[in-house]
Design brief:
The chain is mainly alpha-helical. It has 2 domains: 43 residues, Homeodomain-like (Arc Repressor Mutant, subunit A, Orthogonal Bundle); 116 residues, Tetracycline Repressor, domain 2, CATH 1.10.357.10. It has 10 helices and no strands. The protein is elongated, with a radius of gyration of 23 Å.
Length: 222
């Protein structure tokens, strides 16, 4: 976001919105700002303070109070429609739970909750702005990883996964399977062939992660 060239508001500019008196709830103002930012992103326009203020009807003072950094505003807007997953349920087979979680999470990223165009805009924006990439990682992506990483650590503790497992590297590996379909191959999450490749890739990765049973000693020969 091009915020560097735009000065912070003067101390006297403290009206919450430019459209009239009254002070809407904080949640409403946050929603207005995020919706305006998303509209700019979805329109493939550069996100600037002036455009956010104009589209949202919220004053600069209100905007800066909520998002002192324009980078964090874009990061939060890009995550609208995404949720922090709940911890994986404990009972049952770990492999089945992880597979169900990953395949289900990808299926939920549909055009209603998170449009394909927005996903592509997110990739473009974070790849062109390292500060935004780091902010999005810290505030959102790293949080969504925790349920799977915690489940893998539990698998190590219970002895079903290798004791020397690098949990973070394994997460990168298995999620990278999904991103490759979208970013490199240009497929969609609802493409049956892409989903089949993701599942096959998970199967290969899981075989390398789980504890291998020791081979039986060969029968003695006379």
């Amino acid at each position: 976001m091009d915020a560097g060239a735009e000065a912070h508001p003067a101390a006297g500019e403290d009206a919450e919105t430019r459209r009239g008196p009254g002070r809407p709830r904080t949640e409403e103002l946050d929603g207005q700002i995020l919706a305006a930012t998303l509209a700019i992103i979805d329109a493939d326009e550069a996100v600037t303070v002036s455009r956010v203020v104009e589209r949202s009807g919220v004053s600069r003072a209100a905007l800066y109070r909520r998002w002192p950094s324009m980078t964090t505003l874009i990061a939060d807007a890009l995550d609208v429609g995404r949720t922090v997953p709940a911890p994986l349920a404990k009972p049952g087979d770990l492999r089945a739970r992880v597979f169900e979680f990953l395949m289900g999470a990808s299926a939920e990223l549909d055009e209603t909750s998170y449009p394909d165009q927005r996903f592509r805009q997110r990739i473009r924006l974070v790849m062109s702005d390292r500060a935004l990439q780091e902010a999005y990682w810290e505030s959102h992506v790293s949080v969504r990883r925790r349920p799977i990483e915690d489940a893998l650590r539990a698998g190590v503790a219970e002895g079903s996964l290798r004791a020397d497992l690098d949990v973070e590297a394994c997460f990168d590996l298995i999620v990278g399977i999904f991103y490759y379909q979208l970013v490199v191959r240009g497929d969609r999450f609802d493409d049956p062939a892409a989903r089949a490749r993701c599942r096959a890739g998970l199967e290969v990765a899981w075989r390398g992660m789980e504890v291998q049973e020791a081979p039986l000693d060969p029968a003695p020969t006379s």
